[in-house]
Input
Amino acid sequence: MARIALVTGGTRGIGAAIAKQLKADGCNVAATYAGNDEAAKAFTDETGIQTYKWNVADYEESAAGIAQVEKDLGPIDIVVANAGITRDAPFHKMTPEQWHQVIDTNLTGVFNTVHPVWPGMRERKFGRVIVISSINGQKGQFAQVNYAATKAGDLGIVKSLAQEGARAGITANAVCPGYIATEMVMAVPEKVRESIIGQIPAGRLGEPEEIARCVSFLAADGSGFINGSTISANGAQFFV
Ligand SMILES: NC(=O)c1ccc[n+]([C@@H]2O[C@H](COP(=O)([O-])OP(=O)(O)OC[C@H]3O[C@@H](n4cnc5c(N)ncnc54)[C@H](OP(=O)(O)O)[C@@H]3O)[C@@H](O)[C@H]2O)c1
Output
């Protein structure tokens, strides 16, 4: 039987590559997004993957959306908490609004995505929880106090979930991408991007497909003993 996979923020960037990879792996995939209907439609037209719109920062919306996915496709076996945003500013200029937006989406959003599927995974004695963290959650980053806090928080989430889920056949792992060529990174000024590339020993940005490979590995039925771990994919930019 095909595994059912949910990828939040799965219509663009890294999430889209993950959704496509999981489909290629034989999963039945649902991809979510926040508001960009045009990108979501283009994604479905290209891939045939069904999309759903809800705000991961809202628990009720997430729970209702997940219930709809499960009604349409069946119980979710693999959940990839990928949706994320940046609201960068040096700390002395960071507003409480910028702090809360990023915490609500990137950190509370992971709770809102995983919590509704967790009881079903426990009952069925199988689950794969994969959270997309970041190199900047491992090392911190200028002007990203909010973002780095959420991405470091992701690592605490998976290490704790791993211990709670292990006996129930559920694994929880994180992937920490370095700088990947998505709209999030291409939106930074070219000069800044060039200086980022200068700090990457590989001499290039990563590709979304290279993150999708990590997820594919962690999501596999045969990866049951890999639990609470973090895979770094950053072109040798940073070692934990
Ligand atoms: N790009 C990088 O270099 C990089 C590096 C390390 C970690 N990451 C992490 O990887 C993940 C994906 O990044 P990306 O660069 O692929 O991002 P992206 O290209 O900006 O795509 C973000 C996706 O998340 C969705 N999304 C955003 N806020 C949401 C919300 N509140 N509720 C539901 N969906 C929401 C977007 O939906 P819409 O299309 O509707 O806006 C979109 O599908 C993020 O968690 C990011 O922090 C990225």
Q: What stands out?
A: The beta strands are 4-7, 28-33, 50-53, 78-81, 127-132, 170-177, 230-233. The radius of gyration is 17 Å.
